[in-house]
Amino acid sequence: MASLTIRNIPDDVQRRFRAQASAKGMSMEAEARRLVIAAVTETVPPPRKSIGQMIYEMSRPGIDLPIPPRSPARVPDLE
Prior knowledge:
The protein is an all-alpha fold. It is built from three helices and no strands. The longest helix has 13 residues, at 11-23. It is rod-shaped, with a radius of gyration of 31 Å.
């Protein structure tokens, strides 16, 4: 494994970092390792939706309503 040295960190930043690591029950080294790994780990962004897909999803009701059975058509009386 590789090692990393970071120089010229202001004293107040180092104190806050130590307190942050301590609050999580970790050493400064473990917390720094966690942060560096998280910073360089690629996350796949969710796929973007098209405007048509967004409009379709907004127009859908929250529930599907049952379709009532159709009755036979009435014959109009034209006389």
